[in-house]
Specification:
Keywords: Membrane, Transmembrane, Transmembrane helix. By secondary structure, the chain is mainly α. Helix content is 80%, strand content 0%. It contains 13 helices and no strands. α1 (3-28) packs across α4.
């Protein structure tokens, strides 16, 4: 497969995997408690991630002096945020959940400004404001039309996004250069063991009541979403550019919304769908590299001369 076809294949794969993940979490919840489902998801993913790390000769342990980050990442990036995601889907649709999570680039940009003193370009600031305002309008509109429980689901997803963004920035600051599989393999295993312990004391787990649909959804989350999604996305970044790969954040919510509407009949209101356009444009602008508009202006000036 040539590089162009590989890029297209990876891009489509990431969009489909991320887009279907939200519906899979919704199906898993039909008969499996959220904490146990998340623990099982990571337990399934961990051995395959460890195997891939060995095959690709990537270390399992974080570098010396940074080993404590194994546990920080396991809890603050995997265990708690992913549990909040699936817990929140008990109260809001998978489509709306995906829209909230699609704002990850915006959250990362904000946290980079706070923790890394990142200076944003004017177009990035405009995109950030546009995305935040659009998301707030969508959420306000959907909460007004939905039940009071919408707030619970929204807060859970919002906290998960913020936690992921903070962890992304902190790891960039303190653990830069750690391989992708190193970052995911053992932390996934640690997260699963922690969540199984929490589930034991906080959930009433009846394995006999698990449906095949829910079990299949967790297997999909473990193998395809947690492993396939990671490998496909970071391979996509390698063969294209981070900016092009980030466009997946604009596509996967559309996939999730289509699935939610087609299978469950859960559709956003017309007003919210209209607000999706400025939301996606705002997210896109936050990912446009600095200086790109200045470069184009210089090129136009040079060509005109």
């Amino acid at each position: 497969m040539n590089s162009k076809l590989l890029t297209i294949f990876l891009f489509i794969s990431v969009c489909l995997i991320w887009g279907t993940t939200w519906f899979a979490m919704e199906v898993a919840l039909n008969s499996i408690p959220p904490i146990f489902a998340t623990a099982l998801r990571f337990l399934l993913a961990a051995p395959l991630l460890v195997l891939l790390a060995k095959i690709l000769n990537q270390p399992l342990l974080f570098p010396k002096g940074k080993r404590r980050w194994l546990f920080i990442v396991a809890l603050m990036y995997f265990a708690i945020p992913f549990t909040l995601m699936i817990f929140g889907e008990q109260y809001i649709s998978s489509g709306l959940a995906s829209i909230i999570f699609a704002n990850m680039p915006v959250a990362v940009m904000l946290m980079s400004g706070l923790f890394l003193s990142l200076r944003l370009a004017k177009h990035q600031i405009f995109g950030l404001i546009t995305a935040v305002v659009s998301l707030c309008l969508i959420l306000a509109n959907e909460m007004e039309m939905g039940s009071d429980d919408y707030l619970i689901g929204t807060v859970c997803l919002g906290v998960a996004v913020v936690m992921h963004a903070v962890m992304y920035v902190l790891v960039q600051k303190h653990c830069k250069g750690i391989e992708v599989l190193t970052y995911n393999a053992l932390p996934s295993l640690i997260a699963s063991l922690f969540l199984f312990a929490v589930s034991t004391v906080s959930e009433n787990v009846n394995v006999e009541a698990f449906s095949w649909d829910s079990i299949s959804a967790v297997v999909y989350l473990g193998f395809v979403a947690s492993v396939g999604g990671i490998v496909a996305y970071f391979k996509l970044v390698q063969v294209s550019t981070p900016f092009k790969a980030s466009i997946c954040f604009l596509i996967f919510p559309v996939v999730a919304l289509f699935i939610s509407s087609y299978i469950n009949g859960e559709a956003l209101s017309q007003q919210s769908l209209i607000m999706m356009l400025p939301l996606l444009v705002g997210i896109l602008l936050t990912k446009v590299p600095k200086g790109i508009f200045k470069q184009r202006s210089i090129l136009k000036t040079a060509n005109s001369n």
